[in-house]
Design brief:
With 234 residues, the chain is mainly α. The chain has two domains: 2-37 and 49-116, Fe,Mn superoxide dismutase (SOD) domain (Helix Hairpins, Orthogonal Bundle), CATH 1.10.287; 127-233, Iron/manganese superoxide dismutase, C-terminal domain (minor pseudopilin epsh fold), CATH 3.55.40.20. 49% of the residues lie in helices and 10% in strands. The protein has helices at residues 2-15, 50-73, 83-88, 95-116, 127-137, 140-153, 203-206, 210-217, 223-233; strands at residues 158-165, 168-175, 190-196. The chain has a three-stranded antiparallel β-sheet with strand order 2-1-3, with helices on both faces. Strand 1 and strand 2 (168-175) form a beta hairpin. The longest helix has 24 residues, at 50-73. The radius of gyration is 17 Å and the shape is globular. Bound molecules: fe (ii) ion (FE2).
Length: 234
């Protein structure tokens, strides 16, 4: 686990996708900040509509950041802790804010990760990643089918992940805003791909048709980023 943790810490610094370390001198202002989206709200149309994208980012993700800061402000001793550290050590977070940090810290981490895994540009997996996927799942199509099945079987809200653990690829799902890097996750791993299957991610465009949303996801996966992450974890 420490190996996964150190790799994730290195990669998050390398990619800069987690920006939430703005510690103000007074300690009274926001510690974590909403990272900039790497594309415009309408960049992923028709697969993700611009209204969903705007609400998802400006309302949902921003709320996770604000609520996380509110929780951390109640424990100033945590203000110099990184988001990754808080999630790895979730069991040691004080009782009175642990659920808030789990839900909102998880929400901040998961969405920051998700945004960078999407792209309007057509990309494809590196040959090394494709080889690993084919070796593990039989074919790219089989992999997508397994990923979709996992997405469809998540009851209620949650996430689907492709992770690397002990050098092996694995598809897994977490409820709510949990993720496989949380210290108390039943299945741990270093994530390289994620899909948000909360209804807020797709309901305006797809209504209750989660399957259509999951299938559309393959058109906007940023395989360049997924491949970089895979290379970093190998
Ligand atoms: Fe979301």
């Amino acid at each position: 686990m420490n190996d996964i943790k150190s790799k994730i810490m290195r990669i998050t610094k390398y990619t800069g996708f987690i920006i939430g370390l703005l510690l103000f001198m007074t300690g009274a202002k926001a510690q974590f900040v909403l990272p900039a989206l790497p594309y415009s709200f309408d960049a992923l149309v028709p697969h993700i509509d611009s209204v969903t994208m705007r609400i998802h980012y400006n309302n949902h993700h921003k709320a996770y950041v604000n609520n996380l800061n509110t929780a951390i402000n109640r424990h100033p001793e945590l203000k110099n802790r990184s988001l990754e550290d808080l999630l790895f050590g979730i069991a040691q977070v004080p009782d009175d804010i642990r659920t808030a940090v789990r839900n909102n810290g998880g929400g901040h981490f998961n969405h920051s990760f998700f945004w960078m895994l999407l792209s309007p540009k057509k990309t494809k997996p590196s040959s090394k990643l494709e080889e690993a996927i084919v070796s593990r799942f039989g074919s790219m199509d089989n992999f997508k089918t397994e990923f979709q099945k996992t997405a469809m079987s998540r009851f209620g809200s949650g996430w689907v992940w492709l992770t690397v653990s002990a050098g092996k690829l694995k598809i897994m799902s977490t409820p709510n805003q949990d993720n496989p890097v949380m210290g108390d996750a039943p299945e741990k791993g270093a994530p390289i791909l994620a899909l948000d299957v909360w209804e807020h991610a797709y309901y305006l465009n797809y209504q209750s048709n989660r399957e259509a949303y999951v299938k559309a996801f393959w058109n906007i996966v940023n395989w360049d980023k997924v491949s970089d992450l895979y290379k970093s974890y190998k």
